[in-house]
Amino acid sequence: MIRLFITLPLLLLLGACGAAVEYGGIRHSELASHPDCNPVQTTPATTDGKDYFIVTSRLPDCRAGAIKLTNHRSDKVRFGRFAPPVKLKPAKGKARTIVPTAFQPEQEWWSGLRDAANLRQGRVLLYVHGYRETVDSSSKDTAQIAALTNFDGPVIQYSWPSQGRLLSYAVDETNMYWDERNFRHFLQKLATQDWVKEIVIVSHSLGARLVIPAVEYVDSNSSNADSSNISNIILAAPDVDRQDFERDIIEEVLSARRVNNDRRITVYASIKDKALALSRSLHGYPRLGSPYCFDPFEAADLKAKGLPERCYAAKGRYTEEPSKSGFTIVDTSDVSRGQSGHSDFLRSAAACKDFVATINGQRDNVPGRSATHLPYVFRLMSAGKKSEQEDTSACKWVSLP
Questions:
Q1: Matching Gene3D superfamilies, A to Z (predicted)?
Q2: May I ask the CATH class of domain 2-21+35-316+326-395?
């Protein structure tokens, strides 16, 4: 009962309070009317020092001489470069964080991405953030992923208009669905470039619900029926209906033909993920990123066998098994970090180490993984409590100067 009284107000708050989106006191067209928001051409100096690529459907505000990405929807997708967030400390007033950003004409952006990819054998990493993110926080995470993995190719952030607020889950979910068309068209164009040899996609939380349908779309609409350059898909704490994933998604995205062409999905899941526990309460059914046992009889059977009461998405069934393994679940419950347990892949030393191996394509005999009763599920076991400093160092957290 105590848990019910604690959870119910949170559910009501997430579903109702804070959900309204205020238009603001200035026309949105005025926010984005400055040439910096709609460049005809760029010079090398414009993007100098901006190491990462960004694609965004957020409405920009270019009035103050520096581009600020708001939490509103834009009428078009924009392309640009960005640098990790920096904190500005004026002589008077409060410090504020900015993400140095410069937009480019779309064709120039694609040319720059091509040049960067060609220097690194055609590998591209695409990061799609989740719920409750601002462009500051998602840019910080993108920079951390690049530093942590030492990825040998260009890194792209796709930024959709999440509100960055605890009480705006319903708005974020609405905006995520609104943005599906934008994202799938972008992913299709990326996947059909002949210079893109491998796409590594990392999604977090609600971002998985953008990624998975887009991959399905590219698979079904590409002249290359296998879309085999979308090869390594990583779903960190995915806020996806587990049964929907089992029934529909594995069959399409991980068909035997695509798995044999090196397509694979790795899911990071934790029973300690409070955000996904709340999402389960909102949606009624378990999430892919949480090994919660919806079926009490399945939980009882596991307990009777002396196994942890953790239930995972089922592996796809094939008429003829692929020659490779296409689906892996990594359970981070025992090494979970942070108050919410929702970002272990960037917060826990053990999970970060595993994440790096996954980004780099390692599949078998990954150090630190312990086998379970399911051949495609592995647990990361704690070798003793790590200090926050050890996690910070191992995960290469990006601190603001």
A1: alpha/beta hydrolase
A2: alpha beta
